[in-house]
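Dig into this one:

. . .
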Amino acid sequence: MSRFKGNIAEEKATKFLCEIGFSIIERNFYSRFGEIDIISTRDNVIHFVEVKSGLDYEDAVQNITKTKITRLIKTAHVYMKINSLDVDFIFDAVIITPKKIDFLENITL
């Protein structure tokens, strides 16, 4: 996916998360392990959110691989350490398709 399409998907995901009660802390946090698309908070829990888009749900969700989740977790630990945070956190995904936006909570199960 091009960076342009990725940015559009992340904008939609950010708006969606705000609409369902999240506060956005940061977008596109990078470490040597990878990137976190959106870092947000709700109910005193930090949510590290991966955004995926595609023409259909299956297309998009299949791009959340074991390798991607491993990088997401490592990058989140870097973020927590840099910011001296000791709070509850969770890993989520927002799936963007032309007809729908889906929120998948706790994608590490």
Remarks:
- The chain has a mean pLDDT of 93.
